[in-house]
Structures are given as structure tokens and as C-alpha cells.
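Sequence in, structure out.
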Amino acid sequence: MKKQPVYHSERSKTKITEAMKIHSMLVFLLSLLLLSCEKDKLSKTLEFEEFTIEVPSNWQSFTSQGYDSKTGGIRNGKDELTFDYGGYSYDFKDKTTATHTRISTTIDGRPALIVEPIEKGKGVIGVFIQVDNQNKFSFYGRDIQDVGTVRKIFESVKF
């Protein structure tokens, strides 16, 4: 014979019910967090002539015609990033600290500059890398909402 729980008061029942609600809410929130992290996962490699990048599965590459450099980009239907690989790539010198955060870092063993608009989702986000004595690389987009994913894409560049 199975014993039924003995409650000493209505207050005990309320505490147990509240604890169960909190537990259920935590499980729900953790599930949402895991699902949202999955969409930002860099799960495929795109190969371009001079470099590779890691992107989420829903991003696709495109090509464009450059005059003195190699150009193209990637898009996911909502956001678009364009690259320029050559001697005159955009170096973001006009993106000052008044309007942008400027982050000096290293990508693929090379010094790099990442610029992000101070007002999230409004303005240019990009990376500039001096690849060698002749070639520079810039990769940028405008009014990007998912800054975290774009930053991961920038950091994945391999020459």
C-alpha cells in the first residue's frame, strides 16, 4: 500500500506548488536558450578563392564583379555581408569612436580591426585585415541586428 503525502498545512501545499511552477519555468527557459544558441551555431564552411569562413547553415554565398579586387559576400535573407580582397579594401578609418566601437584584435594570426556601430543595428559593422604586403581584406554589412553571429563569422576567417 502506497502512502499518500501528508501535508501539515495549506501553506506547505502552496510552497510545493510554487516550487513546481518555478522548476517548470526553468526547464522551459533553458530549452529556449539551447534552441536560440543552435541558430547562431557556425555549422558550415564557405570557401572563396583567397579565404574560408564559417557560417550558420542558413547563410549562402554570392559573387560580384570587382574592378581591382575580388568581391562577393554572404546573406541569409535578412542580413548581408560584403567582402573586398585586394590592394584598396575599405579600412574603416572614417568610422570614429563618436559613432563606432573600434576593436583591435587578431584573426588568423593577423592584426585586425572590427568596427561596430554604437547604436546596435544602425550603421556599418565590419572587419579589416592587412593580409600581406599587397593585399587587404574588408568584410562588412549595414544595419545588422545579429551582431554576435556576425562577429563569430568575422573571427572565423582563414586565409
